[in-house]
Write a structure and sequence with these properties.
289 residues, mainly alpha, MetI-like fold
Length: 289
């Protein structure tokens, strides 16, 4: 059998045109291409909510209780044109940026101390357990006593809103970095700040980004609530004070315009700032789908 040679017939394969295989991949329709975009789907959701708002307000027919979407947009446009709403919004954003930046810096320092020593880790965990459940707005009376009528009181409560969620998420991210990643950094001789910046921060960045987003949301709603209670500073105030003033004057469409502005700024920050950071970092690195 070993000497037996099997002769196989030769086959010649001729090239077949692609059209002979039929439809391999169905092309997307124009509607499917448009609907696959995140901004289009979210825009449709917002349009649907606006239609529901308009229909419900028209059915209720009580502008002092629930104004229509059209009257809210009209009030929003009027306050935009005369500059009052833009001035209030800019005032709130400036105070927010100062408190947010200070809170992030303090959270970074606390986290650095926590990851360098066991005592620092216990210190951060104890402080987080104590102060993270404490609502920032509950500290407003104390901040008014300590810092008086000024931006200092608002910045103090904002720091409290930002500090603990950012520190907690950053610390959790650092602690979840695998031992393999840590050993890689040590094998390359990294230590101190280079070890943190080259190994820990990139590996923990999804948690860090989540903490920054949570801290921003906490700070933004705390600021609006504080302005509603705290009022104006030196004859001026932010969006919270704008809402409070118009409520006292029973200008309910203007109240809703102020609330709409708060929501609009939140959407802009979430979708233009944090979403772009997310796409350029964790999604680009393959750490998030």
């Amino acid at each position: 059998m070993s000497d037996l040679q099997v002769q196989r017939a030769e086959f010649v394969r001729e090239q077949v045109e692609m059209s002979a295989f039929g439809v391999v991949e169905k092309p997307l329709t124009v509607w499917e291409k448009v609907f696959n975009r995140d901004e289009v789907r979210k825009g449709l959701i917002l349009v649907a909510l606006a239609v529901i708002w308009q229909a419900y307000a028209a059915h209720l027919n009580n502008p002092l209780l629930f104004p229509t979407f059209s009257s809210t947009i009209e009030a929003l446009w009027d306050h935009m044109v005369n500059g009052s709403l833009l001035t209030k919004a800019w005032f709130s954003i400036k105070v927010l940026l100062m408190g947010y930046a200070a809170g992030v810096v303090l959270a970074t320092l606390l986290t650095m101390v926590a990851i360098t020593s066991r005592l620092g880790n216990d210190f951060l965990e104890t402080l987080t357990a104590m102060f993270n459940p404490l609502p920032a707005i509950a500290l407003l009376p104390l901040s008014l006593i300590w810092f008086g009528l000024g931006n200092g009181s608002l910045i103090f409560v904002l720091i409290h809103s930002v500090l603990w969620p950012v520190a907690l998420n950053t610390h959790s991210g650092f602690m979840s970095v695998s031992n393999t990643m840590r050993m890689v950094g040590r094998n390359y001789g990294l230590g101190g700040f280079r070890y943190v910046s080259k190994i820990l921060i990139p590996a923990a960045f999804p948690n860090i980004l989540a903490g920054l987003k949570i801290g921003w949301a906490f700070a933004w709603r705390t600021l609006i609530a504080a302005e509603l209670v705290f009022g104006a500073t030196s004859g001026s105030g932010g969006l919270g004070w704008f809402i409070y003033e118009n409520k006292n004057e029973l200008e309910i469409p203007s109240v809703f315009a102020g609330l709409f502005t708060v929501i609009l700024i939140g959407l802009i920050v979430e979708n233009l700032i944090f979403r772009n950071i997310e796409h350029r970092t964790v999604r680009k690195w393959g750490m998030q789908n």
